[in-house]
Design brief:
four-stranded antiparallel β-sheet, single chain, elongated, mainly beta
Length: 92
C-alpha cells in the first residue's frame, strides 16, 4: 500500500423536505491501529452537517504509515443513532 490513498462514499439522505441534519460517520479499521503516540484505535468517528435530498460525499485519506493496513474497511453513516448506510472497502 502507498500513502495518500483516498476512498469514500457518496450518498443521499432522502426526506420529505430538504433540511440540514447532523450525521455521524464511523470508519472501522480491519484491525486496531496504533498511532505514533502509542494510542490504539478500532475506528475513526466524525460528525458532519449535510442537507437531505442532496448528494453528499465523504472520504478518508490514508496519509500516515500506521494507517496503511490492508483488509476490510467499513464505512457507516448514522442519523440519530440509526444506521442508514454501510459500505465495505477491500484495500490491498
Amino acid at each position: 500500500m502507498e500513502p495518500n490513498i483516498e476512498f469514500g462514499i457518496e450518498f443521499i439522505v432522502k426526506a420529505k423536505k430538504s433540511k440540514a441534519i447532523k450525521i455521524d460517520i464511523v470508519l472501522t479499521y480491519p484491525t486496531p491501529i496504533k498511532n505514533e503516540k502509542g494510542q490504539i484505535f478500532r475506528n475513526y468517528k466524525d460528525h458532519e452537517k449535510i442537507w437531505t435530498n442532496d448528494k453528499t460525499w465523504t472520504g478518508y485519506v490514508l496519509n500516515k504509515d500506521y494507517e496503511l493496513v490492508p483488509g476490510l474497511w467499513t464505512y457507516e453513516v448514522f442519523y440519530k443513532d440509526k444506521l442508514l448506510y454501510t459500505k465495505i472497502f477491500k484495500l490491498k
